[in-house]
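Side project, low priority. Logging it here so it doesn't get lost.
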Amino acid sequence: MDNYGVEIEEKKFSSRNNLDISKLSSERKDSTVDLWATIDRSNLEQDVHIIPLDDLYQRFHTNQHDGLSTASVIDAQVQYGTNKITPPKSPSYLWLLVKELFIGFNIILWIACILTFLAYKPFGEPNPSITNLALGVVLFLVIIFNSVLNVYQQIKSYKIVASFSNLLPTIVTVRRDDKEQQIVTEQIVPGDIILLHTGEKIPADCRFLRCDELKINISEITGNSKPVISTVQCTSENFMESTNIGFYSSIVEQGTGEALIIATGDNTVVGKISRLSRDKSSDDITNLHREVNRFVLFIFVATIISIIILWITWAAWLNRVHHTFILYNANIINSIGMTVGFLPLGLPSAVTLVLTFVAKKMYRQRVIVKSLQTMEIFNSISVVATGKTGTLTQNKMTVTHFLWDIHGIYKVPIPESEPAPTETLFQTISRVSSGVFKTARSLSTDAVSVVRRLSSGSLNTSHRMPSLDDDNEKNKIPNIASEIKIQAFRDLLLGACLCSNAEKQIVHDDSLEENLSKMKSKMRLAGNEVDTALYNACVDQCYVDMDAVRQVNSRLKVLPFNSSNKFMISANLIESNDPAVLEGDRTVLIIMKGASDIVIQRCSSYKTDNDEILPLTTEMKQALSHRQEELGKDGYRVIAMCQQRFTREKYNRMMEQYKEEQRSRLLTNIEDLNGFPSNDYCFIGLFALLDPPRSEVPDAVLKARRAQIRVAMITGDHPALAKAIAKQVHILTPEISEINGLDTLKVEKDDNGQTAVNMYRNEQLCDRHIPNQLTRPDQNKKHSQDPINVDETQSDQKLPWYKRAWSSCRNQVSEPKSNLPQTTKMEYIPYGIVVAGADIGFMDDFLWDWVLSHQELVFARVTPEQKLHIVSEFQRRAEIIAVTGDGASDAPALKCAHIGIAMQSGTEVSKEAGDVILLDNNFSSIIQAIETGRLLSDNLKKVAIYLLPGGSWSQVWPVFFNLWFGMPLALSALWATVFCMLNDVVMSLAVVTEKPERDIMSRPPSIRGKDHLLNTKLLIHAYLFVGNVECFTAFFCFCYYWIDNGVPLQSFLLTYENFGLNGTTPYTTDELQSMNNVAQSVYYCSMCLFQFFNFFATRTRYASILQHNPLWGKGQNLYVFGAMIISIAIQLFFTQISWFNRILGTGRVPPKYIMPTLGFGMLWLIIDELRKLYIRKRPRSFVARIAW
């Protein structure tokens, strides 16, 4: 069995180490026996890559055939521990609290707190006000409360992300006690024998024991992304450079193999590197960070400008004209009140809470996010590029037919279903009524379809039905497979058994079980979807003893399936019942299985229904291709199979020649098929497989279409099959692709022999284009993680420190320039298009613009490199794209996309490259995640528009009115602090729990770089509309209190320092001070009450409160009533307790003075409802254009 990879160049090591190779060659039983016998191993860091395999087995108490025993595993687990790299030490809760106390808004609050204490003493001497001291204490307590709340939310979000990662245990195949089984990687110990397959991540440092064309990517260790050909032989004295060693986290890019674990956890190379760099961490700035930073920057600038205006007015005019009205000390307090009033202190907690809330919601939708900040991108997604198998389809692939020659066909028997249980009368009535509704719905759907076909002139075109003449009795073919004597069929059956990697294994149940120790073991069929379908067909429907067939026809070598070749090749030594046949004369059967259009082109003959071998002519190839096309149109996936036969002696010579060519590096420009022949195969037949679409996908695609999100299918399957499935799931719809037209591309030669791309619409030539300059993708680019041009980054290092600092600050609020040349977003054309991967290489910018402007897109027979190219071209045209993938080859596209969506059933490589993971592999979960991402953006906007009117606008004007119009201060700094720190924070946390509105998936995606969290529309609505009404309402209640208590407007307006003097009021100064405390409390309570109405108006952007009420239905939000109760309790707490009235300068509020707020609040709610109604009726009106 030739599976030991590429041998080392013996001359190379002979000259380097003066070894006598001729003496060693006769003694070598495995790759390294005595190969380094003359080397002083004491100078080497490690010798596990050098010592003979027998010594290695003895050292770890294992062997390649049986693996570790159960007793040895237990001992090793005690000695080495779990296979887990110690994560970086998380910061302590105390350290998080200390950091939170002195960052962000709290820095400003500390300054305000210190100034307040200074205003008490010494600035307040000789008569310091106890209210200033109380305000300083309140500010101090608020800083502590705000910090504790933010830290609590951070810890909660950290734990959620950590819990998500624990829900995705990585599984590896090991051999223990002579049994192959799948276990969690954390349970691996040194000495374990592991089995490696394409797309898997190596779970620990290991030494290879068997390599079948094994190539691994060790870029995480070396930085070089070029795959390394693994060998069993030691190829370097240096442990890090020898190709017989695999490192933890390396990716198996091709092939299969076996390896012995030599180090786990912190003892691996990556574990040691991790210990050295454990303290070095950096947080990427996401777009959500930038949006919040922009909000904070606006608040900071507005606060500075307001305070500057305040002090300029005071110093230039008020202090000179009315010197005793507002003293220096009082102006400091006013500045503090203005500062606190501007700060949206509920925003940090609201952002963290909404991220946590949305993450939990996504998890319930079977979507796991790796970083909470990435969820914001879902709001901007304009294209979803999805695969077909398992995402759009059920991933329950079954073999329905075996086909050979031109007409030969065998229908795989369908297993008999179990008899249905006897149903009750109630169940019968329910079933019949359900059937009536389904029938009515089907009739209505058919009626719509007839109308569409009438309008398109295709009434007589019937729906395509399966074109297979699959009646076994009619075709005179037995139903029982073992009774069929046709050799082509028997070869298909044998090939399905041998050219397949599907096998039964003992696996641990990796369902979402948090306690890994409780996982149950069971037998499960492991392998890709095609191999498992063939396995089930052979074993369950054709009753083949798979294990016996494989045992007597032992496998010699295999070229695993990969997405580039799209086929698999295996070599098996065929059983011989004649003992007289020499070993060299035994038959080796080489089987190729893969995509039909690719496999057929490698065949030169075919086997007929009469077991004859005839030349595969061009006409016959066309007939087979036509048969495959017809099957694809019916939704069948078609797999072709061909074979060649050699004697064992000829096969060995062929493999030796391949090894010699590989040593001489003569294969650089030749297709490398692991020594297998690339052509001259004999075509045997086809397998027809069916994988029906998921029932919920068509509705999800239509939902995405209503949200103005295009869904593009990118698959490796044949265009005919891709087109058929796309029609079934509404990616290609009758309204566009059938009525308007379906476009295609064909690369052809013109009359002058020049390559031209012909563009067809409904198979009619509509245009011709000569390709110009072709574009190539940047495989290393990530949408937001590393978008800076390398040259720009290097030049930044040469800039002066102040320019680098400015660049860093600018990066906090705006996205850096992309490395890809951006273009404006395209206008879409109402047509569908199907593009074959073979044509992508001929497309220039003109063709890309034309292709990607279609509303409905299907890309078929696409390679991973082409998938990456498609993603990059979407990005160049200002599209925000989400890409699905499940294979190791999908990793570059997943990394390049704005959102990489990996499948839980996919490889570890894809899950590591993706930003989110779909636990159910279901396309509809992606659309639900987009809806949840839009909810995140909506709720953050609602938080902002709730906080701004009361938190800044209605608190700033009392200070300016006091300064400019000489009236009593309507809102003290204390009340401003209590309102911002307590009332608004509690209510804003209720805002983030809002449910999505009904029309959330009927809006277009937000445009990154333009649709900001804080924009002009939102500021106009928050300040000019809500803020002015709220401010007017609070001033109305404030003035109502004064006037109702005998103090007319002219007695407190423009009085400045003369308020209450010269007999203008019937009250003494102390009485007026006490009344002003009550009036300020009235202003505060009026603001709190109006914010309730602002909350109900802000709950929806366009929907009516009646459609989205908080009491029941999809818009239910009972948290708001709890928040309102808490807010009222805070008001009562500070206004009704005498101690607070005396120390803090508050007052008891008679309810009648805040009753006008109910009227003004209802008026505003009605006005806003009318505004939303007008927007719904006239979505293109001026009011709709300025709506937030």
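Brief comment: The CA atoms of residues 102 and 110 lie 8 Å apart.
Revisit when time allows.
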